[in-house]
Design brief:
heterodimer; A: 286 residues; mainly alpha; MetI-like fold; 12 helices; globular; B: 272 residues; 2 domains; 13 helices; transmembrane (chain A); MetI-like_sf (chain A); MetI-like (chain A); transmembrane helix (chain A); cell membrane (chain A)
């Protein structure tokens, strides 16, 4: 390439080097480690695909994967429904609608770890106090059963992410042409019809973005999981990210944990690509 | 047009929702002002005899001035480098139309699909071997992880800047660096605000990566310190809650001043 283009190399080099050292090299290195019995210090043996076989037989990993999947499906649906609902609410022009926007979005500013701690108090102390006042026993043991731990995670995630998703839907709702809505009104369309027939097709692209975001956030969840339930009771609310972390840093089975990490990457990549592909296709049809 | 009655209905419904949304914050704040015993006897109500003692002790135990400073160094350092290097790279990647350029851009986009957990174990191992598990190493890692999305956003914004501007500057004898510095980067300012805010929100609140890289006494950021603090005071909610309030005050102040830009930035970042 000509010297004229040397600036191209100079301008892109810093980020390329950083990406290489931080993402690409560790990924390749990790792929190699996943075929070994690496314990973090030394590699004693090349074990082929043994680690991958073991992962699929690993009860802990399977239950974490199942828990994560269930959690993600429920949370994605709820977050998107609530987020869209909030967006429709705050785009009605009434007094204080901007203030509502500010409040609904606020939890996103605070990190998952701290949010989890705040809610730990809400679930264990406030719910218990309401529960004992009303005589409802299930409220008093919140976070100490698998079932309630699951819903606790869902509630916290909805509370946090709905405001984020709301912002995305708002920007699509605002792109809806006012004159279309007026024309629909003149033709005698009800609010419901205006939503389904006019607004809804316009915000379809918003689904691609929102689903992608909620999916990747839910599936990779770690901080809230750690601070809210820490996987308990008996690892029954442990999600995949935490399972990988504990295998690596609590049990020191680094090679084995890395095999899990590679599987995790493949799952995330496949889901994300499929979802983007499907939603893009649908948009064009609409 | 909406009728007056309908507006009231929306307003009241919204108010109820807001109160529900704020309920955890309410509980956190009122209980952080109560003596230890009162939290158990009166969890939901306002404090009977409020006290700031919890705050004084939590502030000291969190070593808050230092912890806040640690968070600031990491966040500001990383965000400044991410902005500078990503804008620079996006300029080159968008203006130079070669196969290599396209491939490099695709590589950054594809890297967004890789979850942190998939590279975390070898990453820590590699940086440990070259003795870079420190602040400098952490900031470098944030550049690597943050560059993809930032380049993507800058790349999108670059398309709207006419190439004629570059060409005119080249004829005037400007170097590529001068064009970037004096023509392109100033025009990219709205995108820079978005990139800065999105990366700040992420890095300020990040727990997992710094916990693996700089989890040492005296270097801990707010989330790291909060984790230790919470572990120590798990049965002492009065201190734990005061600590949580202290930890989120800087964020709330920031949000108060920047809410318009933050919300606009999030919409921008997501939609593009």
């Amino acid at each position: 390439m000509s010297a004229k283009k040397s600036w191209f190399y100079a301008f892109t080099a810093p980020v390329v080097v950083a990406l290489f050292c931080v993402v690409i090299l560790p990924l390749l290195y990790g792929l190699y480690f996943s075929f070994t019995d690496w314990d973090g210090v030394t590699v004693n043996a090349f074990v082929g695909i043994q680690n991958y076989f073991d992962v699929f037989k690993d009860e802990g990993f399977r239950s974490a994967l199942w828990f994560t999947t269930k959690f993600s499906v429920v949370a994605i649906i709820l977050i998107n429904v609530i987020g869209l609902g909030l967006a429709l609410l705050v785009t009605q022009k009434f007094k204080g609608s901007n203030f509502l926007r500010t409040i609904f979005f606020m939890p996103n500013l605070i990190g998952g770890l701290i949010l989890g701690f705040i809610w730990q108090f809400v679930f264990t102390k406030a719910f218990a106090s309401i529960g004992s006042a009303l005589g409802i026993e299930s409220l008093q043991i919140w976070l100490s059963t698998t079932q309630t731990g699951f819903w606790a995670l869902v509630i916290v995630m909805c509370w946090q992410m709905s405001g984020y998703i709301m912002i995305i839907y708002i920007s699509y709702l605002q792109s809806v042409d006012e004159s279309l809505l007026e024309a629909a009104s003149l033709d005698g369309a009800t609010s419901w019809q205006k939503f389904w027939r006019v607004k809804f097709p316009m915000i379809m692209p918003g689904f691609t973005v929102s689903l992608f975001m909620t999916l990747s956030n839910c599936f990779k969840l770690y901080d809230q999981n750690l601070s809210l339930t820490a996987g308990g009771p008996y690892n029954s609310t442990q999600m995949v990210a935490m399972n990988i972390f504990n295998t690596a840093f609590a049990q020191n089975k680094m090679g084995y944990a890395q095999a899990k990490a590679i599987i995790f990457f493949v799952i995330i990549a496949v889901i994300s690509l499929t979802q983007v592909y499907l939603t893009k296709k649908r948009e064009i049809e609409v | 047009m909406m009728t007056k009655k309908k507006k009231w209905v929306f307003g009241i419904f919204g108010l109820v929702l807001v109160l529900a949304w704020l309920f955890p914050f309410y509980l956190m704040i009122v209980n952080s002002l109560k003596p230890k015993r009162e939290i158990f006897t009166n969890t939901l109500g306002l404090p009977k005899d409020g006290t700031f003692d919890n705050y004084i002790q939590a502030f000291q135990d969190l070593d808050f001035v230092k912890t806040l400073f640690n968070s600031l160094i990491i966040t500001v350092g990383s965000v400044v480098f991410i902005i500078f290097f990503s804008a620079l790279a996006a300029y080159a990647l968008q203006r130079v139309k070669t196969k290599l350029s396209g491939a490099v851009f695709m590589m950054f986009v594809a890297a967004m699909l890789i979850p942190f957990q998939s590279v975390m174990i070898p990453l820590v191992s590699i940086f440990g071997k070259i003795d870079q598990l420190n602040r400098g190493g952490l900031i470098f890692m944030y550049i690597g992880f943050g560059a993809s999305m930032s380049i993507f956003l800058y790349h999108g914004a670059m398309k709207a800047i006419p190439v004629a501007l570059d060409e005119a500057a080249v004829i005037d004898g400007a170097t590529r660096w001068q064009i970037f510095r004096h023509v392109i980067f100033p025009i990219l300012k709205p995108t820079t605000v978005t990139v800065a805010l999105l990366n700040t929100m992420w890095i300020w609140n990040d727990y997992l990566l710094p916990s693996l890289v700089i989890n040492k006494e005296g270097k801990q950021t707010i989330p790291l310190k909060m984790f230790f603090f919470f572990g120590e005071y798990t049965k002492q909610w009065h201190l734990a809650l005061a600590g949580l309030v202290i930890a989120i005050v800087p964020v709330i102040i920031f949000y108060f001043f920047m809410q318009k830009q933050i919300i606009a930035g999030v919409a921008d970042g997501a939609v593009k």
